[in-house]
Amino acid sequence: MAKGAVVGTAVVVCAAAATAVGVAVVVSRRRRRRREAEDERKRKAAAVIEEVEQAFSTPTALLRGIADAMVVEMERCLRADPHAPLKMLISYVDNLPTGDEHGLFYALDLGGTNFRVIRVQLGGREKRVVKQQYEEVSIPPHLMVGTSTELFDFIAAELEKFVGIEGEDFHLPDGRQRDLGFTFSFPVHQTSISSGTLIKWTKGFSINGTVNCDVSYIKHSIDFIDSEKVGEDVVGELTRAMERQGLDMKVTALVNDTVGTLAGGRYVDNDVVAAVILGTGTNAAYVEHANVIPKWNGRLPRSGNMVINMEWGNFRSDKLPRSEYDKALDFESLNPGEQIYEKMISGMYLGEIVRRILLKLAHDASLFGDVVPPKLEQLFILRTPDMSAMHHDTSHDLKHLGAKLKDILGVPDTSLEARYITLHVCDLVAERGARLAAAK
C-alpha cells in the first residue's frame, strides 16, 4: 500500500475514533442529565410526601385536644351561644323505641338524590319485625332545581303508589289512619316531634338554580337555599302534597337521619345512647339529660331525656389539623368557612383532597410524566368511592389502582412508583379521616 494511502487510512481511523469518543461523551452526558433529572424529581416527590405526612399526622395528644374542644363547643351551643359552630338541635324525641312496638308503620327517608319509602309490620318483643318492604326512587334532576311544591308532589305521588300495593301481609286496624315517620336529612329547626322549619336546602338541591359553575362540583358540594320555602314547615308541605294526592296518612314524627339511626339502634339494643353518620356527610346524635340543656324552654319531658341532633359537621376549631389542601378546598367551595370538620372526614370530600395532593405531585414532581394530566385539574373528578377502591388495592403491581388512574385521570401508563405514591396518599387521607372521626 502506498505511503499516502496508509496515512489517509490512519487519519480516517483516528477521525472515526474521535467521533466515537465524542458520541460516547454526549451519550454519557445525556444519561447523567437524565439521572440527575430523575434524582431531582424523586427528591421533589419525597419532599411533597414528607410535607403531607407531617400535615396529616394525628398523634393521640392532638386527638384528645380535638375531643376536648368539641365538648366545649357542645356546652356553648346548649347554652344557646349564637357564636357556637354546632347547632345542637333539640329533636323533641324524648322516648326511643323499646322493642315492644306493634302495628303497621310507614317511613319516608329523604336525604339526597334518592328517597326511600318503607313499610314495616312490627310484632312486639317476641316477633319484632314481622315483614317489611321498601322502594327507592330517584329524584328527577329537574325537580332538584324546581320548586318545593313540585318536589313534594312527586314524593307524595310515589308514596301513594307504594301504599296502593300494600298487600294482605300488612294489617292496618279498621278506622285507623296510616302513621308516617318522616326522615328529612336537611337542616331543620324543629318545633315539635312532628313539625320543623327548613333552615336551608343542601346536597345538590338548588331550587332557584341561578348559579353558573361546574356541574360535577354542584353535584358534590352545593349548598343553596330555596328562598320561597326556607322557614316553612316541611311537615306541612308534605301533608298538603299528600292531601292533593288523596292519601290518608299522617306524619307523626319528623326526624333527622342521625336521630333515626339512633332510634333504630335503640330498637335492637336498649343500651344504645348515640349514633354517628359517616357517609357523604357526617353527623351525630345522642341522648342528653334534659335538665342540663339551658336553652330548653318549657316543661321537662317525663323521661328526663332529650335526643340532641348535633350537626357536628360544622365543628371548627384551631385544634383541627387543617392542611393547605383543606384550606384551599374550603376557600374554593360554595360554602367557605362552613362544615369544616365534615370537609376533613366525609365521603363528599376525601377523594377531592387526594386529587389536590396528586395535582401538586404532578406539578412539582412530574408524578405522571412531563405533562400534567388535564383531567387532574378538574374539581371533584376523583370521587371518594374511587379513592377507596385504590386504597384497598392489594395486588402486587397495583393494577386496579393503575386502571382507576387511567379511566379517571386519563393517564394511559403509570410507573409502579407513581402507583405506590398514589396508594400512600390515599392511605394518609383515609387514616387521618378515620382518626379524626374516632376522636369524637
Descriptive account of the structure:
The chain is α+β, with helices and mostly antiparallel strands and 440 residues long. Helices cover 45% and strands 16% of the residues. It contains 14 helices and eleven strands. It has helices spanning 3-55, 60-78, 124-127, 141-144, 148-164, 215-221, 234-245, 257-268, 324-332, 342-345, 350-365, 384-391, 399-409, 416-438, and strands at residues 89-90, 102-110, 114-123, 129-138, 178-184, 188-192, 195-198, 249-255, 274-278, 282-289, 305-309. The strands form three sheets. A five-stranded mixed β-sheet has the order 4-3-2-5-8. A four-stranded antiparallel β-sheet has the order 1-11-10-9, with helices on one face. A two-stranded antiparallel ribbon has the order 6-7. Helix 11 packs across helix 12 (384-391). The longest helix has 53 residues, at 3-55. It is elongated and about 125 Å long. The termini are far apart.
In percent terms, what proportion of residues is strand?
15-25%
> What is the gyration radius calculated from CA atoms?
30 Å
Number of DSSP E strands: 11
In terms of per-residue confidence, which ranges show pLDDT below 50 for 5 or more consecutive residues?
Answer: 208-229
Strand order of the largest sheet: 4-3-2-5-8
Overall morphology: elongated
- Supply the number of helical segments: 14
Q: Structural class, judged by helices and strands?
A: alpha+beta
